[in-house]
Automatic annotation (TrEMBL):
<dbReference type="InterPro" id="IPR001199">
    <property type="entry name" value="Cyt_B5-like_heme/steroid-bd"/>
</dbReference>
<comment type="similarity">
    <text>Belongs to the cytochrome b5 family.</text>
</comment>
<dbReference type="GO" id="GO:0046872">
    <property type="term" value="F:metal ion binding"/>
</dbReference>
<keyword id="KW-0349">Heme</keyword>
<dbReference type="GO" id="GO:0016020">
    <property type="term" value="C:membrane"/>
</dbReference>
<protein>
    <recommendedName>
        <fullName>Cytochrome b5 heme-binding domain-containing protein</fullName>
    </recommendedName>
</protein>
<dbReference type="InterPro" id="IPR050668">
    <property type="entry name" value="Cytochrome_b5"/>
</dbReference>
<feature type="domain" description="Cytochrome b5 heme-binding">
    <location>
        <begin position="8"/>
        <end position="66"/>
    </location>
</feature>
<keyword id="KW-0479">Metal-binding</keyword>
<dbReference type="GO" id="GO:0020037">
    <property type="term" value="F:heme binding"/>
</dbReference>
<dbReference type="InterPro" id="IPR018506">
    <property type="entry name" value="Cyt_B5_heme-BS"/>
</dbReference>
<dbReference type="Pfam" id="PF00173">
    <property type="entry name" value="Cyt-b5"/>
</dbReference>
<keyword id="KW-0408">Iron</keyword>
<dbReference type="InterPro" id="IPR036400">
    <property type="entry name" value="Cyt_B5-like_heme/steroid_sf"/>
</dbReference>
Amino acid sequence: MCRLLSEYFFFFDMVYDVTPFMDDHPGGDEVLLSSTGKDATNDFEDVGHSDSAREMMAKYYIGEIDASTVPAKRLAFAVRHFTKKE
């Protein structure tokens, strides 16, 4: 079974599956949903997350994107259409 990248975002070229954290996010799931399928680095940094929030991200890490090899428009497309086998 494959799942589309509707619950994934990337942060500093690292991809995270935040699906398990949606219901527990202190800012609500809408905050995460608004950042899925795109580079959420600025969104994440603007909030000023704690060290423990940054450490928590490790368990949601699923891979990396080499942004230097993909034009920006293609990168956004790739992130939106990335699939993960389950």
